[in-house]
Write a structure and sequence with these properties.
Largest sheet of chain B: 6 strands, mixed
Largest sheet of chain A: 2 strands, antiparallel
Low-confidence stretches of chain B: 24-30
Structural class of chain B: alpha+beta
CATH architecture of chain A: Orthogonal Bundle
Shape of chain B: globular
Strand content of chain A: under 5%
Order of helices and strands of chain A: HEEHHHHHHHHHHHH
Oligomer: heterodimer
């Protein structure tokens, strides 16, 4: 009897591993191995065309003195600090709102919100470049119609980063909202019934029932959005190429410049490793902060 | 039952693994039965692309032991990631194009083959000295030039007349004109806005007109911290600071469509714009003038242009070099057709320039030939750190409140550091 139970368990475990294996192989080949290789390259000087030259940790020493690198890290942090809370707040807000709608309006709203997510990054960037045009863009035309002045948007060092943040939010709002919506729908309506009897509706219901029960989803969205905000590249490359005057040069763009414009593959790899460490530490911190033991 | 299950799973796994195997086997140029296959990568479009395709077809037909396969990519990818990544994986093309902006980057890495041994008799001397200098590195000729594209000031005659503005000849007049021509309907002048080699390309003449330059003649010392540079920087930046030039463009800065569609009254653009104006924008009355000069300055303009290069690590350097020489280093008809029919540019060879004399007098070309050609200085080919430093200095004077003299000083240090490396 004992032997039979063991064999069954082992068979189940084996099947489980079998299912995870393909994904794990994929991750290993396309994520873990390149990461290790990137660290290996970061210890060399390499222009992709001649053999690698071993330089130890010289690239990391150079990085410490690189003002433009730290400026790009600063830009990335500013981007993240503005983008993440905004996206979080807006997707939660709209999720709650749409949850109140009748089902056919809800389907329509969901589709509309998800449309931007379905467009390729380059096309969404191009669409917004037209909207933002300092002379003839639609946004400026609306502004002028209401008596305002034309804004430079992507042509201004002050407005460029915010303008790009708006675009990224526009793209990702629907997706994150859907995740929140799904989680909200899982909250048993009995809770709300009980709350209503006690006189807690509207904002109180949200604060004491909805939001606490969305804890897991919130943590997920915060961490994933933060990681994502460190990786924004396509839109910035198309819309400003990091300008004007490096106002929108985030770390990923600087790494790209070092790798493909200067052909400093070794240095770029070192920067990428450091960026990875920053994101990793940030994500761990977020998880530790938000996950209480309850 | 169980046998079928395992069999299906096994077959499925095999089918999924097949593409992986196929991917890795399609590597570099192979030879079958003594035929040499060469890869030629290009970025041109429309008529220019067709020219190269026809060239390849003609060569393949007349050379039975060589087969050239041409692939086209968009210019953005081509000038950034496509080539370095391909070369790094030993899957680069045998024949490709380089521009002055990217030349040093490739030359330093050793990926360009020396074409000296492949020149036919007398051809090397036929090339214009400045054109050949631009591709010579450590005594080796690392690419073959086939075009010189000059810059000029294009303008909309009607818009100038309506605003009562004369064609500007000096820097002051250009600023005044740009100011008067900036209206709600159109911009005063269109200049490049994003940081890229083309931005630098358009700015250099304003430095050269004063006799200044980025580095010394021997290439060892940075000469960026000078009043000439500061003046040229401030002059360039003023168009953006004062709003005469748009800070963001919908159509690329190389596209004369900015002028042709009435979005601007003036645009600094190159010889390549003339066929576009003649075909696409026939109804717009466009004029052309040499670039305005500062007080006490000399006329100067920039001469850019792409070059054909051979991959030094190719298995068939000789065959690839032979094609390059056949294309633009032998029969005059081919470089002539390129420079006069397919687009408008000046050939890099003296004999070809002679041949095409009749074309150079037609329409706006006449102005390039008579008033601009002699003042052309070839686009410099600085290494990418210097190109980037200059680009950053321009961005600073265009979009921040930094002064030209201060920016020139900071950039000079960067350039010197790059030269010392």
């Amino acid at each position: 009897m004992f032997k039979k139970k063991n064999r069954l368990k082992r068979k189940e475990a084996l099947t489980a591993y079998g299912f995870v294996l393909p994904n794990f192989i994929g991750l290993t080949i396309f994520v873990f191995v390149p990461m290790v290789y990137a660290f290996y390259v970061s210890l060399h000087q390499w222009n992709a065309l001649s053999p690698k030259v071993f330089v130890g940790f010289d690239n990391y020493v150079q990085m410490a003195k690189d003002k433009e690198w730290w400026h790009s890290v600063y830009n990335t942090f500013i981007f993240t600090i503005i983008y993440v809370p905004l996206l979080f707040g807006l997707s939660l807000f709209f999720a709650v709102l749409i949850h109140q709608l009748k089902s056919r309006y809800e389907s329509l709203a969901r589709t509309l919100f998800l449309l931007p997510f379905a467009i390729t990054s380059v096309i969404s960037a191009t669409i917004w470049m037209f909207l933002y045009d300092p002379r003839n863009g639609f946004i400026n035309q609306v502004l002028k119609f209401f008596g305002g002045h034309s804004q430079q948007f992507l042509g201004s060092t002050n407005q460029a980063l915010i303008s790009i943040i708006v675009v990224i939010i526009w793209i990702n709002l629907g997706y994150n909202m859907m995740i929140f919506l799904a989680s909200i729908k899982e909250i048993p309506t009995d809770y709300y019934e009980a709350a209503r009897i006690d006189g807690a509706t509207g904002w109180k219901a949200f604060r004491f029932i909805t939001f606490p029960l969305l804890r897991g989803t919130s943590i997920f969205i915060l961490v994933v959005t933060t990681i994502g905000s460190f990786q924004v590249f396509d839109q910035i490359m198309v819309m400003t190429k990091g300008g004007p005057a490096n106002a929108t040069e985030v770390s990923v763009l600087y790494i790209y410049k070092q790798a493909f414009e200067f052909l400093n593959m070794g240095y770029a790899s070192a920067l990428a490793v450091v960026l990875f460490i920053i994101i990793f530490v940030l994500s761990l911190t977020q998880l530790k902060l938000y996950t209480r033991k309850d | 039952m169980k046998v079928w299950k395992t069999l299906t799973v096994f077959l499925l796994a095999l089918i999924l693994a097949l593409p992986l195997a196929a991917c890795s086997s399609s590597k570099s140029s192979g030879d079958s039965k003594g035929i040499v296959t060469l890869k030629f990568w290009d970025f041109h479009t429309d008529a220019e692309k067709k020219f190269f395709q026809d060239l390849v077809k003609e060569y393949n037909a007349s050379h039975p032991n060589v087969k050239i396969e041409m692939a086209s990519f968009n210019q953005s990818d081509y000038t950034t990631t496509k080539l370095p990544v391909a070369f790094a994986n030993n899957e680069g093309p045998d024949i490709f194009m380089v521009s002055p902006g990217g030349f040093t980057k490739f030359a330093q890495s050793g990926i360009l083959a020396d074409l000296n041994p492949y020149f036919k008799d007398g051809v090397k001397e036929d090339f214009l000295p400045s054109a050949l200098d631009a591709v010579t590195y450590n005594g080796k000729v690392l690419a073959l030039p086939f075009e010189m594209e000059l810059l000029g000031l294009y303008y909309n005659k009607q818009m100038l007349k309506d605003a009562n503005v004369e064609v500007p000849k000096t820097w002051e007049e250009l600023q005044e004109a740009a100011k008067k021509l900036t209206t709600d309907q159109h911009a005063g002048i269109v200049l490049p806005t994003d940081k890229e080699p083309y931005l630098n390309f358009l700015w250099y003449p304003f430095l050269w007109q004063q006799g200044g330059d980025v580095i010394s003649k021997d290439g060892k010392k940075a000469t960026f911290d000078t009043p000439e540079v500061a003046k040229a920087l401030d002059f360039w930046g003023s168009f953006f600071q004062k709003g005469y030039a748009p800070s963001k463009l919908q159509i690329g800065p190389t596209d004369i469509g900015n002028l042709g569609t009435g979005k601007t009254a003036m645009q600094i653009c190159g010889t390549w714009a003339i066929p576009v104006l003649e075909n696409k924008y026939k109804n717009v009355d466009v004029g052309l003038a040499p670039l305005p000069i500062p007080d006490g300055g000399k006329p100067a303009t920039d001469a850019g242009g792409w070059k054909l290069a051979v991959n030094a690590k190719s298995k068939h350097v000789k065959e690839a070099a032979d094609f390059v020489m056949w294309a633009f280093g032998s029969d005059k008809s081919r470089p002539l057709k390129w420079a006069t029919e397919v687009k408008f540019a000046y050939p890099a060879r003296k004999s070809v320039v002679e041949e095409g004399k009749s074309v150079y007098d037609k329409g706006l070309r006449k102005i390039f030939t008579e008033e601009i050609y002699d003042t052309a200085i070839p686009e410099p080919r600085y290494n990418p750190e210097i190109v980037d430093a200059i680009g950053e200095s321009l961005q600073k004077v265009m979009f921040s409140d930094a002064k030209g003299s201060q920016v020139a000083k900071e950039t000079n240090e960067k350039i010197q550091a790059a030269l010392n490396k």
